[in-house]
Amino acid sequence: MENKLKRHLSTDKLKTGAGMILLALLLTGLAGCAIKGEKLPEPTAEKPAPASPAVAAEAGSSQLEDGRLGFVIREVPNQPADWQTDFSAAVERLNAQDYSGAIELLQKVIEHQPGVTAPYIDIALAFRKIDKPEPAEENLKKALELVPGHPVASNEYGLLLRKAGRFAEARTIYEQALVKYPDYLPVHRNLGILCDLYLNDLECANEQYELYSKGKPDNEQVKIWLAELHQRLGH
Fold first, then answer.
1. Is residue 134 part of a domain?
2. CB within 8 A of 68, min separation 6: which ones?
3. Which pTM does this prediction carry?
4. CA-based end-to-end distance of the chain
5. Secondary structure in 3-state letters for 123-155
6. What is the pLDDT of the chain when averaged over all its residues?
7. 3-state SS, residue 24
8. Residue 116 belongs to some domain of the structure
9. What is the mean pLDDT of residues 1-20?
10. Does 218 reside within a domain?
11. Residue 82: its pLDDT value, please?
12. CA 150 to CA 171: how far, in whole Å?
């Protein structure tokens, strides 16, 4: 078991999922590039209520400008785009691992644009990185209240819940995201890991790894996990 956990940890490192997103939040679907969830990441969080106008979200796949199949969640800010300067600076600080600086800027952005999900997701990532799961969960809950089932927020939240040992809650969050965004690959992978290593639901793990592998056939690591799982299932 320990060796398998280490192998899961050695895969794709988590990237800032909401980082480069401004008015249109582009979430890669079959490409799976918007966020790469670790197999055994740190805990994430839930979130409270939205503080401003409704957000229009398009669920389902569509063709992105670069040719990938993905999702577009369109969010309309309340005020002019002055806040984008702080948001861009916050992303730079996140990438530079200056998490306290990123949090300070993102708090300002949220104050001016409480109806946009990306700052909530990014500030949750920053809080998670400095081992503050409670504010991370709070902000992820806010993002999910604005856009229920938001795949990037759900992916982060599931990772946070998993680290906290709240496995049933993590499964629910992943499954709710996949109802609206069934092609969002990181959630399939992390739900598979949850079922495989934490819930001992091998059929669930097999289904999720298969779906991930179908969407991303070049991922050799998941093929190895599938082969091991097939042996355990007696396939």
1. yes
2. 28, 29, 30, 31, 33
3. 0.74
4. 20
5. HHHHHHHCCCHHHHHHHHHHHHHHCCCCHHHHH
6. 76
7. strand
8. yes
9. 43
10. no
11. 72
12. 15
